[in-house]
Design brief:
Pfam families: Acetyltransf_1 (PF00583). Belongs to the acetyltransferase family. One of its GO terms (molecular function) is N-acetyltransferase activity. The protein has about 160 residues and is of the alpha+beta class. It has one domain: Gcn5-related N-acetyltransferase (GNAT) (Aminopeptidase), CATH 3.40.630.30. The protein has helices at about 10-25, 35-40, 95-110, 125-130, 145-155; strands spanning about 1-5, 50-55, 60-70, 75-85, 115. It has a five-stranded mixed sheet, with helices on both faces. It starts with a strand and ends with a helix.
Length: about 160
């Protein structure tokens, strides 16, 4: 079952974020707290949204996303920040179902894009996305400022 996340799901979503960070070989990067995630998803001004895949009362996976905007298309889109299905639930259709739910939201709201990033070495995910018809944006390189470089630029 795919459903919107509730406040009761926050601790389990955060646990899966940690599992995702382990899988991506950067556990030290996962520093979010339950309070931060709760505020981002359910606070006064939510900045993000989440859907979960649930099986027999257990969360099998999640998709965490936020709205983007295309100046070229003139409308919103969805940027998928994280898609994660626990290893014991992979192959059960949960990843596809989570993406299908986001695609449905795009179509219903007339959003024109569903986008995300994937690590170059994550061959299983890349194969899965290509099978869905997603195309890589190879000509684009993602840049990021964090920590000290971010603070230095702000000064």
């Amino acid at each position: 079952m795919i459903r919107p996340a509730t406040p009761d799901d926050v601790s389990e979503i955060l646990a899966m974020v940690g599992e995702l960070a382990e899988y991506e070989k950067v556990p030290h990067e996962a520093r979010a707290t339950e309070e931060q995630l709760h505020a981002a998803l359910f606070g006064e001004r939510p900045a993000a949204f989440a859907h979960v895949a649930e099986e027999d009362g257990e969360l099998a996976g999640f998709a965490l996303w936020f709205l983007s905007f295309s100046t070229w298309r003139g409308v919103h889109g969805i940027y998928l920040e994280d898609l994660f299905v626990r290893p014991q639930h992979r192959g059960g259709g949960y990843g596809r179902a989570l993406l299908a739910e986001l695609a449905k939201i795009c179509v219903e709201r007339e959003y024109q894009r569903l986008e995300w990033s994937v690590l170059d070495w994550n061959a299983p995910a890349i194969g899965f996305y290509k099978k869905l018809g997603a195309i890589p944006m190879d000509e684009w390189t993602v840049y990021r400022l964090t920590d000290e470089p971010l603070r230095a630029l702000a000064e």
